Amino acid sequence: MKKELQIFLTAIMFFTRIPCPKWVNHDTDFLRQSSKYFSLVGIIVGSIGALIFYGSTFIFPKEIAILLSMVSTIYITGAFHEDGFADVCDGLGGGWTKEKILLIMKDSRLGTYGAAGLILILGLKFSSLRELPTYNIPLVLISGHSLSRFIATTLIYTHPYVRDSDDSKAKPAAKNMTLKMLIVCGVFGMAPLFFFKTPLVFLTLITTYLAKMYLAAKFKKWIGGQTGDCAGAVQQLCEVVFYLSLIILWKFI
């Protein structure tokens, strides 16, 4: 039990800015196993965003409440996945070989493709959330953050880690995903969906996984696998696809 707690807190420490006890460190073995709690971290992050949204609606219009919830989730994660999405946009947009793409993705500077990608992905998040009923947005946020992280871990399971260098902090969490770890992550990832009023919401598993397959095909073609940035990009895209899918399904929910 203590070991599992350490693994979970390692996931919290690695994927968020939430303070952890001093005895929690970046132990490679714990970090390697922390991916199974990726979705649970998503539930926590989504819950923070949901709480900020709910509280803000008593003071501000819906649109401002949505923006504040987005700010809170970006802050609490340190823009971890947004950074990965931007790096992938820069790498695939500006590189024509595996080596060049990986080099661009590792560069900390933000390029034109990354900036455009971030503007568009954040704009889509805001616009899609604004179209959903106010009373259900807290549950939507929690579900979007948890499910998208589960789908991102399936990329780690199905595609090999391709960066050769050992200096990447994300490397242990971006490789060696086992089926047991994936199942644990899937349980947490899908759990919030059961709180919706209709099983139709589980159709979002199809749309989000198709989005993952689209990006995975590009990763396979251009770099032969995935990196931590690739998983971050999948998370961001699948979160938006989840919200967009709900807009379509909302007529039946």
Helix- and strand-based class?
Answer: mainly alpha
Major pleated sheet: none
Give the total of domains: 1
Characterize the overall form: globular
How many extended strands? 0
Annotation field: number of helices = 11
* Share in helix: 55-70%
Oligomer: single chain
Percentage of residues in strands: under 5%
Mean pLDDT: 92
Query: What is the straight-line distance between the termini?
Result: 39 Å
The gyration radius over C-alpha positions equals 17 Å
Order of helices and strands: HHHHHHHHHHH
Low-confidence stretches are none
Structure notes:
Helix 3 (38-56) packs antiparallel against helix 8, helix 8 (137-158) runs parallel beside helix 10 and helix 8 (137-158) packs across helix 11 (228-249). The chain has one domain (38-249). By secondary structure, it is mainly alpha-helical. It has helices spanning 2-15, 28-33, 38-56, 62-77, 80-94, 98-106, 112-130, 137-158, 179-190, 204-222, 228-249. The chain is 68% helix and 0% strand. It contains 11 helices and no strands. The termini are far apart.
Distinctive features:
globular, 253 residues, mainly alpha, 11 helices
In a few lines, what is going on in this structure?
By secondary structure, this protein is mainly alpha-helical.
